[in-house]
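Sample entry follows:

_____
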Amino acid sequence: MELFVLGTSQTVASARLRERLHIDLEEVYEAVEDLMDRGILDEAIPLATCGRLELYCAAENPGRALGLLRRLSSMYSELPGHELDIYSYAYRGEDAVRHLLRVAAGLDSVVHGEVQILGQVRGALHHPGTDRTAGPLLHRLFQRALGTGKRVRTDTEIGRGAASLASAALSMLQREVVELESMCVLVLGAGDTGALMARLLAKSGVGELVVANRTLDTAWELAADLGGRGESLEDLPLLLREADLVVGAVTATERLVTPHLLDDPEDWPSFFLDMAHPGNIAPEVASLEGVRVFDLDHVFERVEEARAARAEQVPHAEQIVAEETDCFVQWLRSRENVAVLRAVRRQVLELAKDVAEEHAQGRPREEREKMRRLARSLARTLLHPPTMAMREADPESSEGRWLLESAATLFGVDPVEGAGPDAAEPTDPDPAAPHLGCPRTGTTPSSAEGPSSETPSESSVPERAAS
């Protein structure tokens, strides 16, 4: 079984293209379960954020699975295969492991070290759909990623200073929009991004803050904490007439703000900031007279300053990712080797026991026990050289595969049947614990998000096409 990831992100595709490649998360889970039922995938976890859509998978035939996922993505997005290849990426094996660990560490983010991505990785692992699609391999990989992300933020200063897309967006608004302190700001959505933007705007000082949400109680609860008011999205046309600046942060498959919502051009707000993916603001709104629209691409363009400030911490962070990647790859290899190793050891020790019992019949009890100990000792001595060789074998190399296959043949064992149900699992119950010389990642599932100065934390799947 091999790990792989198929995805798209802000590094290879614009916001408009990512919208074409976007697939609702529940649809992704449904498609994944169908592919698992057909034996094409063994495990899968989608990771979806405002800047990326990725699908992490494990499959016996990754080439076949990747080809099928690409064709499905091309059909869904209506992008020809050659264009899809340009705006998506795929990594296999160790490269896939390294990619997720870099993502969790914030090294693949627009702002290096931003903490929101760590919460999003954790959210993907604990999504209800993941219980149906993930297995031990991906659970372990995502746990390792969470630990790596926290270790990078603990051992380096890459997370200091301007932290997230939300804070970068606020900085952009403060430069581009005058007199924020006298404006009525309407925030659409009270989820992670909406709540974070509302808190940042309230903290910076705006004339009036209005939070609109599908659930009115949620809007009121958030707005009350910030000295604003909560409204229902059903009243959107009326709310637009009152607003000077509108921030879109609603998870929706259709545009919420279209040119047809308001008849009088003078009723339109002057500024829009679209932080949602897919976007909440129809592209045509930007063509309206006196209206200016900022989207995620505009935000991405303005985060280079934060990148530069954190650039000197990147080498240390990359070194940590490399260590943790090696760690996980060693575990993967040991996982494959353990099945053969345990089957061989069990076979030899059982043969030694049978031979000792046969020759000990009729002898005094003390002598029988001595013969059993001698047989076990001899068997373990003879097993030591092949045991060390099998432990160190690389199953990804032709030489390593030959050694493991030969060992199974020479000793007459079936690694699957002979090793038992737990044979493929090393005796390391904690995915974040040291293994084969690896450093402890220092995380548990509940503590992996690390510190954050924002509430909700500036931390929040698949690049299905990826992602």
Remarks:
- The beta strands are 2-9, 43-48, 52-59, 89-92, 184-188, 208-213, 229-232, 245-248, 271-274, 292-294.
